[in-house]
Specification:
Blueprint lengths: L8 E8 L6 H17 L4 E3 L27 H13 L2 E11 L2 E9 L5 E6 L11 H4 L10 E2 L4 E4 L8 H9 L4 E5 L3 E2 L5 H22 L2 E5 L2 E5 L10 E5 L3 E3 L5 E4 L6 E8 L1 H9 L22
């Protein structure tokens, strides 16, 4: 069973960014946004998925492996110094080069003392039109993790992990107070506003369900803006319109704050961790699990 929940409040900063071709400029903007969040009281700050560059997986292109870097490496050094200077916990999402020919989609957690406190390698890797991540990333081999920080026990998960209840449950059972998802999701086809709204609603609803089923806080930090699949055709052709709408919900699934869908924005949200214990007492889903009946979930055998 999970550890006893912490008490008190933690101020969470979600930095919703628009990411362009210029990686140094993306980093500069991210740093400025993190500094502003910390100046306004944020204690834990999260950046979007792969924030250093345009989303690289819209096509299968071996040249894009050149975007990858080691961890620890140049970007974690910058983020470590930033976290230490501001006295915050900072979560960043990077294209990790583990060794030649082996790459991961990795979230790093930098502690207020500047140390690399933990890393999570994305477990669920999509392969969909304009989201060809299986070409680039090996599934994570470190399992679902909970990082003990001064403010809260954080489970860093990444984007596609959002759709899987198993990830949320396993992180909860390891003691997470907060599931934190750096994200890159949007609309890649012109299907009309009604379908777009339905897709967004499904994305948010499934995560609110994780919060309710597990009695935890859930936060998703998305990027925003149109990113073409062909940089030479920045205003035409295929691409993804990242829909932003980063949000935080409490253990009852109530949305505490939500960003807009058109522009960069930073959310500052106070999360009262005492709600975790209260919610789990009122809705004892963890108590009433029938673990004796779930063995088939880890078996490839069917009832036949």
């Amino acid at each position: 069973m999970p550890k006893a929940s912490r008490e008190g409040k933690v101020c969470l900063g979600l930095v919703q960014l628009e990411c362009g071709e210029d990686s140094p400029l993306n980093l500069e903007r991210a740093i400025a946004a993190v500094e502003a969040a910390a100046a306004n009281g944020a204690e834990v700050v999260c950046l979007p998925e792969l924030f250093l560059h345009r989303y690289p997986c819209q096509t299968e292109d071996t040249k894009r492996f050149e975007l990858a870097e080691s961890i620890p490496g140049p970007t974690t050094e910058v983020l470590s110094k930033l976290a230490a200077r501001l006295g915050i916990t900072l979560l960043g999402s990077l294209f990790e080069r583990r060794t030649e020919g082996l790459y991961h989609n990795t979230a790093v957690v930098l502690a207020p003392d500047g140390k690399l406190h933990g890393r999570y390698r994305k477990m669920h890797i999509p392969d969909d039109p304009l989201y060809y991540e299986k070409f680039y990333f090996t599934p994570g081999d470190r399992g679902f993790q909970v990082i003990e920080t001064p403010e809260a026990r954080i489970a860093p998960l990444v984007c596609w992990d959002q759709w899987f209840p198993e990830a949320a449950r396993l992180a909860t059972l390891k003691g997470a107070d907060l599931l934190l998802y750096p994200t890159a999701i949007g609309w890649q086809f012109d299907l009309g506003e009604a379908e777009n709204a339905a897709q967004h609603d499904a994305w948010e609803t499934v995560q609110r369900g994780h919060a309710i089923a597990n009695g935890v806080f859930v936060a998703a930090v998305n990027r925003v803006g149109f990113e073409p699949s062909d940089p030479l055709r920045p205003s035409g052709g295929e691409g993804i319109r990242f829909f932003g709408q980063s949000f935080v919900c409490d253990p009852t699934g109530r949305v505490l704050a939500r960003a807009g869908s058109e522009a960069p924005q930073t959310l500052l949200v106070d999360c009262d961790l005492s709600l975790i214990a209260k919610t789990r007492r009122d809705w004892p889903f963890l108590r009433d699990r029938r673990v004796d009946a779930y063995a088939k979930l880890s078996s490839l055998l069917d009832d036949d």
